[in-house]
């Protein structure tokens, strides 16, 4: 069965649907970067940045970092470092357990 039958839309129409998003590939890349960002913001996730990049489809860590900074305006390392510092301060003030609740409300 071809893609047209599975999706019920022609390739040209699919590309038109995603034109405002920068195209299908750009949309998918942004979704992968957003998923990687959620992992980097999770202080309990101890995976390395390169490992997270690979798990989200980026085989080149430099390319991942470049695209990440381009989309979010911060490097993956800076984001992770800031998140961990914030989490440490929250632990000290007793509000660390509220973080996941606030993140859920923000979605």
UniProtKB/TrEMBL annotation:
One of its GO terms (molecular function) is DNA-binding transcription factor activity. SUPFAM superfamilies: Homeodomain-like. The keyword Transferase does not apply. Residues 7-82 form the HTH araC/xylS-type domain. Pfam families: HTH_18. Keywords: DNA-binding, Transcription, Transcription regulation. The keyword Mitochondrion does not apply. InterPro entries: Homeodomain-like_sf (IPR009057), HTH_AraC (IPR018060), HTH_AraC-typ_CS (IPR018062), MarA-like (IPR050959), Tscrpt_reg_AraC-type_HTH (IPR020449). PANTHER family: RIGHT ORIGIN-BINDING PROTEIN. This is Helix-turn-helix domain-containing protein. It comes from Chromohalobacter moromii.
């Amino acid at each position: 069965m071809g893609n047209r039958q599975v999706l019920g839309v022609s390739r040209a129409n699919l590309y038109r649907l995603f034109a405002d998003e920068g195209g299908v590939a750009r949309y998918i890349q942004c979704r992968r970067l957003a998923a990687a960002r959620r992992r980097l913001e999770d202080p309990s996730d101890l995976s390395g940045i390169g490992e997270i990049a690979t798990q989200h489809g980026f085989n080149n860590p430099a390319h991942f970092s470049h695209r990440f900074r381009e989309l979010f305006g911060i490097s993956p390392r800076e984001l992770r470092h800031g998140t961990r510092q914030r989490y440490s301060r929250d632990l000290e003030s007793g509000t660390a357990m509220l973080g996941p609740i606030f993140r859920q409300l923000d979605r």
